[in-house]
Every structure is written in C-alpha cells, then in structure tokens.
Amino acid sequence: MPDARRGLLFGVAAYAMWGLFPLYWPLLEPAGAFEILAHRVLWSCITMFVLMLLLRRGPQLRAIWRDRRVRLLLTVAAFVISVNWATYIWGVNNGRVVETSLGYFINPLVTVLMGVVILHERLRPLQWVAMGIATTAVIVLTLDYGRLPYVALVLAFTFGSYGLCKKTANVGATDSLTYETAVIAPFALAYVGWLGATGGSNFANHGLGHSLLFMTTGIITAIPLICFGAAATRVPMVTLGLLQYLAPILQFALGVLWFHEDMPVGRWAGFVLVWIALVIFTVEAVNHRRRQLRLAVEATTAA
Predict the structure, then answer these.
(1) Crossing angle, helix 68-93 and helix 150-169, to 10 degrees?
(2) φ, ψ dihedrals at 204, nearest 5°
(3) What band does 302 get if pLDDT is binned at 50, 70 and 90?
(4) What is the pTM of this model?
C-alpha cells in the first residue's frame, strides 16, 4: 500500500475513534466526569510510560525535563487538556453531545482567533468573513439555548490553548502526552484515593467488566494519538486539516440520530451558519496554500 494511502487510513482511523467517543464514556457511568477523568489520566499515564519504554524514548522525556521553557509549556498544556477532557466527558454524559460537537467544529476558527490575539497574526479578508459568520452563529445558538453554549466554548478555547502550547513547545505527541499525564497523575491519584476512602468510588463496585472498562481508558486515549502521529508524517497538512472535521461530524450525527437530542429550528440555523463559516475558512486556506506553493515553485524555477 502506498505510504500516502496508509497515512490517510491512519488519519481516518484517528478521527473516527475520536468521533465515536460519545459511545464510550456513558459505559463508565454511574461514575461522574471527574472520577472518569482521574482514571483516564492514571491509566493513560501508565499506558504512555509503557509505550515510551517500548519505543526507548527515555532520552526525549529527560530532554523535556531539562528544558525549563518546554516543561512550563507542557505543564500548562496538561492542566488545559484536563479541563477539556472533563468538560467533554461531562457534556457527553449529560445529554449535550451535539453541543460538544459544536466545540470541535468551531475549534479551527477559535485557533485562528487566538493566533490574532496572542501571536498578533493578521487575518486575510475571507478569514474575517468566516469569523463574522461564526460569531453570528454563536449569537443565534445563544438565543436558541437561552444561554451561551458554554460547553462548546470551553472545549474550543481549551483545545485551542492546548494546541498553542504544544505548537510552541514543539515536542513529539507521544513524549508530550507522557509528560502531561505524569504532571496530572498525582492529583488524579489523590482524588481516586479520596473517593475510595469516603466510599464514593465506582471503580470496583459494578463488576469486573466495569472495572476493566476503566482500565481501558489509557489504551482508548493512546491508540487514536498513535494513529494521528502516523498520519501526520504521511499525508499533507491540508489533508489532515480536512480530516479533523470527521470527528465533530460523527459526534453531531450520534447526538442527533443515536442519542436523539433536540434540534429545534434555531439550533439548526446556528449549526448551518457554523458550517458555512467552515466551508469559507477551509476553501480559503486550501487556495492560499496552493498559491504559496505555486509562488515557491516559480521562485525556485526563476533561480
């Protein structure tokens, strides 16, 4: 199989698994979002350390520890992704799967907005149009929900912040996730211990199968990440950028068709506006990249 096709399959697998997560988290109930998060962190930490040993990436992990700037960035990333994970699990297990999908639909636009505010990047005209339509969509959805779609906004801004930290740190996905889970693991262990001591733990109270499901949270976290890493080295960034919409599309479909969440006219209108903004944003980004590549080829030829 050609390397590019293999990369495409890895990418589809990664985003499909992320998109199907809403089917997984309810299986861990009656545990609450924070207990599920704590177990996800602990079992992910164990899984990632085993993976690091198998891949012999100890030197890369030590390099993170020695670099104070990278260490600080990944520590911030660890706390931000913890908020993201907790919000997502809570949203899925509280009947807000559609709203969680909105968070990941608008994430690319939020990431661009953060680039403008934090990195002082400049938007191109069509990017401004997309941002304006997305803002209108948030207003429409706020009126429909009777409140800000805070689950979606928290997911979008935390994941955007996480991406910014990771981009600035410039560390491999496996190495960084290992460090991030190790940073949060003591807090997660303390919380799980407290639940056990106070009789509030659900880990061993609902049968062996339920306990084993808790233990798979590490593998469930690691496998899509490994597939994503394999895809990132084999397919163009434009392809990877388009694939990222697969996860929220699946989440949205599950919310509407599987969980039968309400979708009144106002909510449909808000989502349609978001999709229009994403089409404009994506087409503009693809065309801009093609222009840049064409100019680079012409400059090379002229030289």
Answers:
(1) 160
(2) -115, 20
(3) low
(4) 0.90
